[in-house]
Amino acid sequence: MKIRLDILRRESGETEPYLQSIMFETEDENATVATALSEINKSEGIRDLNGKRVKPIRWECSCLQKKCGACAMVINSHPQLACNARLKDCEKNGCIKIEPLRKFPVVQDLVVDRSVMFENLRLMNVWFNEQTKADEGSAEISYEASRCLQCGCCLEVCPNFYAGSEFFGTSAMVPITRIISELPEAQKKEILKAYREHGYSGCGKSLACRNVCPAGIDIDRLLVNSNAAAVWRRKIGGRNKKK
Ligand code: SF4
Ligand code: SF4
Ligand code: FES
């Protein structure tokens, strides 16, 4: 398999981006975009399509197992994990366009600064101060929410999210759902308020985020449960009886 990778590169956040084409050849039919980027960077003297020597491609990865979210990028216009994007599934006419996620500041090439996602979680106190346990009715919801990778793919397609906005997007609403589902009722007031202010009120409910989550999280179900708890004061995972 011979693929032309058109990579949107940038020396830093202050310089202009430019498209660079690099050929990649492999016999591995399961090779992913992550495989291609790694192999290209390992090769002696990387050259572009015109034979010019070019610098290694800066990108991020850790697990290479679809578990950490670090390798999220835009591949042929779809946000996805490079380690989960098989070349043969992504290519169109022998080409794949690779760009950094667009909702975050670019650091270099495909590396972006996703700290706004983590700052938003901090602003809403999305963590447990003590050990908690989901009850039978909410355990499944809590587990589903815990699978979020904080990759940012959902923010890429969200029409309502931008860095600095009061609306924090799905990457915040999903972890909040876990907190809501595990905290005792008496301690939920502040987190429910944060969910209403930074989640529910800014969300257009279009569910564009539902189709891109690489973890396959049932976002629809989680948001329905959190909306019910935060707005209509109903129990997470319960039978929607008023408390
Ligand atoms: S439902 Fe729409 S507005 Fe709400 S978080 Fe998902 S993409 Fe964004
Ligand atoms: S909800 Fe899905 S797409 Fe959004 S940050 Fe979590 S894992 Fe990524
Ligand atoms: S490197 Fe961890 S998800 Fe791709």
Quick synopsis:
Helices cover 30% and strands 14% of the residues. The chain has helices at 33-42, 87-90, 115-123, 139-146, 153-157, 170-182, 189-198, 219-231; strands at 2-9, 18-25, 72-75, 78-81, 95-99, 106-108, 111-112.
Describe the fold and architecture.
This protein is an alpha+beta fold and 243 residues long. It is 30% helix and 14% strand. The protein is built from 8 helices and 7 strands, in the order E-E-H-E-E-H-E-E-E-H-H-H-H-H-H. It is elongated. 36% of the residues are buried.
Number of helical stretches of at least 4 residues: 8
Sheet-strand content, in percent, reads 5-15%
CATH homologous superfamily of the largest domain - what is it?
Alpha-helical ferredoxin
List the uncertain runs: 239-243
Q: What is the third-level CATH name, the topology of the largest domain?
A: Fumarate Reductase Iron-sulfur Protein, Chain B, domain 2
Map the helices and strands:
Elements: E1 2-9, E2 18-25, H1 33-42, E3 72-75, E4 78-81, H2 87-90, E5 95-99, E6 106-108, E7 111-112, H3 115-123, H4 139-146, H5 153-157, H6 170-182, H7 189-198, H8 219-231
Parallel strand pairs: 1-5
Antiparallel strand pairs: 1-2, 3-4, 3-5, 6-7
Helix pairs in contact: 4-6, 6-7, 6-8, 7-8
